[in-house]
């Protein structure tokens, strides 16, 4: 099946972001995409100073638009981190997924908050404004089961391993790595998650805006279960298309059967809730 990743240029005007995102979703659908993903923070600038201002409840303005365009195009739509979500006085970094009938299929709240300090390069602390999610998020399609993470979640190999154990064949991480971590680890982490678990990994980033307070790396990417990069964007606004070949996935798992050769008598990773 065809996957489309929308590397959107994000402005400070929420309505413009929503309108452009929906237009690109329609374009992707017209080109045969069955599963379409938007980037992390697609409807607002990325930064702790913006989260409260742009926050919405779910359902709300942004998710309603996503629901409508998913139904209109009869596709599965992953809403990136569609919004900073407000719920019970707390804010979450949340990705909403909609089915071809417009129904909400999954709502992933970012599990691992991006609190880092690389001296002389970047310091960022999402926990100043955001609360962490506490659950894994998966959804079924007629093609395969899909597991969700958001950006920093990709650094935690155990999370991807759980998704693999639960039958996911595709992991999608809307993300916004920066100009320090992007060139160092963006592709490396995706290839690691893919080859370790013998599944497809897709990441979808905002387009790079050199004038923004937080500059995203871009380079939305798809990696196959062999660890090969099969599609990759540059830094500009674009839509990346690729074919997800589940026959190839099955062949790789048969050729190198690591999933059946794990020594579960010696080690294990488990989902606690």
TrEMBL record:
Enzyme class: hydrolase
Signal peptide per UniProt: none
Domain of life: Eukaryota
GO cellular-component term (any): mitochondrion
Pfam families xref list: CN_hydrolase
Keywords: Hydrolase
E.C. number(s) listed in UniProt: 3.5.1.3
InterPro entries, per database record: C-N_Hydrolase (IPR003010), C-N_Hydrolase_sf (IPR036526), Nit1/2_C-N_Hydrolase (IPR045254)
Molecular function as annotated in GO: omega-amidase activity
GO BP, one annotated term: glutamine metabolic process
PROSITE patterns per UniProt: CN_HYDROLASE
Ranges of residues in domain CN hydrolase: 1-246
Transmembrane segments: none
Catalytic activity entry: 2-oxoglutaramate + H2O = 2-oxoglutarate + NH4(+); 2-oxosuccinamate + H2O = oxaloacetate + NH4(+)
Family the entry assigns: Belongs to the carbon-nitrogen hydrolase superfamily. NIT1/NIT2 family.
Protein known as: omega-amidase
Species this chain originates from: Emberiza fucata
Gene: Nit2
């Amino acid at each position: 099946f065809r996957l489309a990743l929308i590397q959107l240029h994000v402005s400070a005007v929420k309505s413009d972001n929503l309108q452009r995102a929906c237009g690109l979703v329609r374009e992707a659908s017209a080109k045969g995409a069955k599963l379409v993903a938007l980037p992390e923070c697609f409807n607002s600038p990325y930064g702790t100073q913006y989260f409260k201002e742009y926050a919405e409840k779910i359902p709300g303005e942004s998710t309603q638009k996503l629901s409508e365009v998913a139904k209109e195009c009869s596709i599965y739509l992953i809403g990136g981190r569609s919004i900073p979500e407000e719920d019970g006085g707390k804010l979450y970094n949340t990705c909403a997924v909609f089915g071809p009938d417009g129904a909400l299929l999954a709502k992933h709240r970012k599990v691992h908050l991006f609190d880092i300090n690389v001296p002389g390069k970047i310091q960022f602390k999402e926990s100043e404004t955001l609360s962490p999610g506490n659950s894994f998020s998966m959804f079924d399609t007629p093609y395969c089961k899909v597991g969700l993470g958001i950006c920093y979640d990709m650094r935690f190999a155990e999370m991807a391993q759980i998704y693999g154990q639960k039958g996911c064949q595709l992991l999608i991480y809307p993300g916004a790595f920066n100009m320090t971590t992007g060139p160092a680890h963006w592709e490396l982490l995706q290839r690691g998650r893919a080859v370790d678990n013998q599944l497809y990994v897709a990441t979808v980033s905002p387009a790079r805006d050199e004038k923004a307070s937080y500059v995203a790396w871009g380079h939305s990417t798809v990696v196959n279960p062999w660890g090969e990069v099969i599609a990759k964007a540059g830094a500009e606004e674009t839509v990346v298309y690729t074919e997800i070949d589940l026959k190839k996935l099955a062949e790789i798992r048969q050729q190198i059967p690591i999933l059946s050769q794990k020594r579960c008598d010696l080690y294990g990773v488990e989902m606690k809730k």
